[in-house]
Every structure is written in C-alpha cells, then in structure tokens.
Amino acid sequence: MESESNKKKKAAKRKSKKDAKALLLGVGLDNKDGHVRVTRGPNFQLVGGSSETHEVMQETAIKLNEELNKRGKRLEDVGSNEVMDILDRLHH
C-alpha cells in the first residue's frame, strides 16, 4: 500500500508538470542606435537588437507559436529538439 507521503509527492509532481511554464528568450546584440527594444508575448520575451534584428525575432516568435498551435501544443509541451527543428524550418 502506498504511503500518504508518496501520494502527496506524486500529486505535487503531476501538478508541477502541468503548471510548468516555458519562455523563449531572444536577445539582439547588434543595436547601435541606442534605442531599447523590448517585445513581450505570452511565452516569449525579446530584448535589444537593431530594428531589423528585432523585427526578425518578432516574426520568428510569432511563427513558432503559430506552428505550435497547428500541432495543438504549447511551448511547455515540446522539447528543445522539436523547437530547434521548427525554428530551422522557419529559416529555410
């Protein structure tokens, strides 16, 4: 018979996986105009970069989320390999 302590641990583990959050972080380092660019989305934060670089990061984050939606998944549901595969396809 399973102890009460083990039941609580398993319930906490299930809850923590369900409540897990993932965040895509984009950092642009090519800014020379002194303008601070920041874009936040439901599962991404983009900081810095030139106007062009920041725009590319925005488009990439949006397209990644569109692809995840098509698959019926959230960022929390996929591993890094699947994210990298999607990003690779977006840029080719």
Q: Structural class of the secondary structure composition?
A: alpha+beta
- What fraction of residues sit in β-strands? 5-15%
Largest sheet: 3 strands, mixed
Rg over CA atoms, rounded to whole Å, is: 18 Å
Physical arrangement of strands within the biggest beta sheet? 1-3-2
Mean pLDDT: 88
The shape is elongated
Number of helices: 3
Helical content (DSSP H or I, runs of 4+): 40-55%
State the distance separating the first and last CA atoms.
Answer: 55 Å
Number of strands: 3
Order of helices and strands: HEEEHH
Low-confidence stretches: none
Please summarize what this structure is.
The chain is 51% helix and 14% strand. It is of the alpha+beta class.
Q: Secondary-structure map with pairings?
A:
Layout: H1 4-18, E1 24-28, E2 38-40, E3 44-48, H2 51-71, H3 80-90
Parallel strand pairs: 1-3
Antiparallel strand pairs: 2-3
Helix pairs in contact: 2-3
